Amino acid sequence: MFTKIEVPKDYEVWADQSYHKIQRHLKDKGIEFFEDLLLDWIAAPYFSLWKGKNKEGIIWVLHNDLATDAFVDKDMIQTRQALAFYAYRWINCSDLKIYNDLTAEKGISEINLYGSISSLGKVLSETVEDPELWEEEE
User: Which of 19, 33, 122, 124 has the smallest C-beta neighbourhood within 10 Å, fewest atoms?
Assistant: First the structure.
């Protein structure tokens, strides 16, 4: 389903690299945050979910080695909810025309990004629907 991705053996290095890309994405999209973004969920090398706050609400940022995407919501507080939002958004990315909202990594064409993001959306959906992963949150 996924192509092989070069990932540092140390997931902390991967997360640190992700954090810097996320900061650039938020700055480029004009999304301010006034507290540090915290790593909320990691499934390296497939994706990481980050959480922060600004005056509008909670910032959720999904990052992988293909793209970075962010949204702000004042009511969404659970990780599972945020992943469900991204699952729907990314599965339907070509229909929703979210390409301009994403910060794609260099060298990735729009068509390749749509297919890869849609595939990752399906993985996110499976993650959301796996009850064993969410026992503590329910």
Answer: 122
**Residue type at position 23:** Q
Q: What does the angle CA 131 – CA 134 – CA 136 come to, to the nearest 5 degrees?
A: 130
What's the total number of domains in the chain?
A: 1
- Mean residue pLDDT across the chain: 80
Domain extent, residue 34, equals 11-129
Per-residue pLDDT of 91-133, as tens digits, reads 887 655 565 566 666 666 666 677 788 888 899 999 999 988 8
DSSP SS3 for 42: strand
In a 3-state reduction of DSSP, which class is residue 41?
strand
Following DSSP, what letter does each residue of 57-109 receive, concatenated?
EEEEEEE-SSEEEEEEESS---HHHHHHHHHHHHHTHHHHT-GGGSEEPTT--
